[in-house]
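Sequence in, structure out.
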Amino acid sequence: MPTLFVVATPIGNLEDVSLRALRTLRSVRLIAAEDTRTTRRLLDAYDIRTAVTSYHEHNKWAKLEYLLHYLEVGGDVALVSEAGTPGISDPGHELIVAASERGIPVVAVPGPSVVISALAVSALPTDRFTYLGFLPRQSGSRQRLLRSVAAEPGTLVILEAPHRLQEALQDILVTLGDRRVAVCRELTKVHEEVFRSSVSEAIVHFAEPRGEFTLIVEGAQGGPSAPPARDVERKMRTMRQKGLTAREAVAEMSRETGLSKRDLYRVWLKLA
């Protein structure tokens, strides 16, 4: 029976593709690609002439039956995303589920991963981690998700687009505190950068972010836990209504919670 191959492709440097991935891409009858232009650059670099069809977020449901029918009567199909492994914060999960439900073999062809690469160079603990993928677009939803993992001792892995990086870092600071972080930008590409510091310093450093980002955030540490961000915001709002100045409110909350005055001042500013 024909097989669906889930093929990992380079996250930047084309030399990172595996020999098995190249052999698979040559041997299948069809390649279902998230971004056909990116995939063709890889295929052209290795002189691979296999037919390519688009399969991305906006047409995945329309293309699903076509690809399943092709697998059942046409031959092997390779599923590739724009970079890394399909189905991991990329299109492909629905096709993998549908193929497996129909008894079609699904085979992994492993390779480059921005998640594992970023963890490896982050200098933060790697024995346990929680992958959050892309954070919600809205600040409220983003903060709720971050609060839900605030007590998680494992390292947190987050993907983020450049135009949302500043807002994401601000919400991480408010909900998780000024933790250690490794901000990995454009891994394996020409402008690769790994910035290891604190969340607050990352906010300053990436004032005008460009490229694709992977954030590796320190997990919760031992000791008394800070009160939930919503409780801090509620108390500071009450202080504001009573007429306290920013300095007075921040000083009082810092004594009460142990949070840094810098973090609390940022909360105060968001209440304005």
